[in-house]
Amino acid sequence: MKIATYNVNGISARLPVLLRWLDESRPDIVCLQELKAPQENFPVEALQNAGYHAIWHGQKSWNGVAILSRNAQPEEMRRGLPGDPDDTQSRYIEAKVNGLVIGCLYLPNGNPAPGPKFDYKLRWFETLTAHAANLLASGKSVILTGDYNVMPAEQDVYKPERWINDALFRPESRSAFHNLVAQGWTDAIRKLHPNETIYTYWDYFRNAFGRNAGLRIDHFLLSPQLDKRLVNAGVDTNVRGWEKTSDHAPVWIELAGE
């Protein structure tokens, strides 16, 4: 089973790129972030024609997450994290798909830091971590994937010394990510590629993609039930070089059958 995550950076503007990638890659399950579209503007018909069922949590102009499935309609479990009813930003959606619990997330950027946006990022991280603990305790096969807006280690960022004060690389953000993983999650990319330079995001400016001046901020965290089923993982870096593409590239894993 092939599962992917992709921050599309605006699903309306990137729909041709998304459909081309889906046709070429054929993932079974896809998590999308940064839809930047209200609920009614999600391109459900185009995705159905491409062979995918979908659930989505839209928001006008900003944020937005979705889960796609080729084989069955995702069974929605929740939209939004529990414990923060005042949070109106569309950043989390969760579903049962093909025997898995899939949590698709778009964690806040947090810049400028310090400041209110950074405080919101850390609060959101705390809420996610509390929910993640409950998911682990359920004993189910769980994947938490998406754009975490965190580079966990220096190997995950081009020239880390330039990012010391950025919300994506500040010690508080990295600590929050490591605390989450320490609950018992597996960082799928790093399990299979512990020493490689792997990026999932390249800025549009200063020829960042051409220079491979990137960041690894899109992650797959797997519950213990899935750790031994992980057989492959990678990044479709070539997609970042397509015309009118997102500043992220799709990230994917493959799981063996039970």
UniProtKB/TrEMBL annotation:
Annotated EC: 3.1.11.2
A GO molecular-function annotation: double-stranded DNA 3'-5' DNA exonuclease activity
Cofactor: Mg(2+); Mn(2+)
GO terms classed as biological process: DNA repair
Residues annotated as site: Interaction with DNA substrate: H248
SUPFAM superfamilies tied to this protein: DNase I-like
Pfam families: Exo_endo_phos (PF03372)
Cofactor note: Probably binds two magnesium or manganese ions per subunit.
Residues the UniProt record annotates as site (Important for catalytic activity): D218
Endonuclease/exonuclease/phosphatase domain ranges (all copies): 4-248
Assigned keywords, A-Z: Hydrolase, Magnesium, Manganese, Metal-binding
Residues binding Mg(2+): N7, E34, D147, N149, D247, H248
Sites marked Transition state stabilizer: N149
Top-rank EC class of the record's enzyme: hydrolase
Catalytic residue positions: Y106, D147, H248
InterPro entries reported for this sequence: AP_endonuc_1 (IPR004808), AP_endonuclease_F1_BS (IPR020847), AP_endonuclease_F1_CS (IPR020848), Endo/exonu/phosph_ase_sf (IPR036691), Endo/exonuclease/phosphatase (IPR005135), ExoIII-like (IPR037493)
Family note: Belongs to the DNA repair enzymes AP/ExoA family.
PANTHER family attached to this UniProt entry: EXODEOXYRIBONUCLEASE III (PTHR43250)
This protein's name: Exodeoxyribonuclease III
Source organism (scientific name): Ilyomonas limi
